[in-house]
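Lecture 7 notes: from sequence to structure.

We start with a single chain of 368 residues. Read the sequence below before looking at the structure.
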Amino acid sequence: MIRIKAGVPRSRRPRTNSRPGRRALALGLPTVWGAVAVGYKFGCPLAEQTGLGARIVTSAVFFAVGTGLILHVRRALLRELRQARMVAGAAQSVLLRPLPPRLAGLNVAAAQLSADRGASIGGDLYEAVATEHGVRVVMGDVRGHGLSAIGTVAAVLGSFREAAHDEPELGRVLGRLDRALARHLRERARAEHPSSGQDPDGPVAEEFVTLLLLEIAADGGLSALNCGHPWPYLISGARVEPLSTADPLPPLGPFPLPTDLAATDCGQLLDGESLVLFTDGAEDARSPKGHFFSLPEALREAVRDRPVSPQTILRAVFTALLHHTNGRPTDDIALLVLHNERQPQRPFLGARGTARPATTHPQPTTHG
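Now the structure, written as tokens:
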């Protein structure tokens, strides 16, 4: 997270240009060590002797010089690694920004587990926003890894954050995301092959995105559009079951969307129920013996002790995942949990016998 300190304005703060000093230090230390070694070899009479004592001293001098050079290089590499991780963390906080703990009466928690050790950003994407149309959520998985996948994630999330507020229908939100992905792939293909001078007919044909769009209305009504993504799990008490068994649409990218994009009616999210959205890396995770991870069983184990919160569900599932894979997952895994804590409005009898909605008490923003 990027923090701006209050105080003296940035334009009036004295700037110390330390980069030339660091460069001089980086070049100067190896030069000094080399000068010490050369000076000892050609300027010290002891280095010209062939006795055992002289050889031991000479070996000690060159060992010290070599050790100093190695330590200097190691410190420089660690400094560059720390800086790269800081940049990656800042980029992730902008791309996959932390979700608020509460969103329109829903308790929210999300986390991501990267398959690459030390990696901060992968091909998984998620976002949840409260709009006048309801709480809208997206969970997706971009094929591949690396910078190309990050660019695709940025294009899809940027389009969703705008379309979720602008479009009244979920199908039109999906259409905006599909057009944004197609435009991003065309621009990327044009940048990768600038000599053609024309738009490619099939830009990056192997690129696709599995995507789930979910809308939670004020009364808990659920509607969804699924493009090749796993259906979420609905947790009601100790029961864990898929939210829907409807056939999904094809992933975004390779095929055009159908003209009729009617959202699937998925019932209602009642008070106390939870939804668990995830990427396919969770159910595709294998043990060293090749057994697949059972996400429903892990969720049943997580909600066995009541009460539960999205945070405890995430901790339990990721702990079970790491134990199942022996701490070495082969794919990125993202989980997003939505727990309905909206208090149902109960009418009470007014002064003249009229029914009035009860005043809703403010909800806490933190949970123990």
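The helical segments are 19-43, 52-95, 146-166, 170-192, 295-302, 310-324. Keep this in mind for problem set 3.
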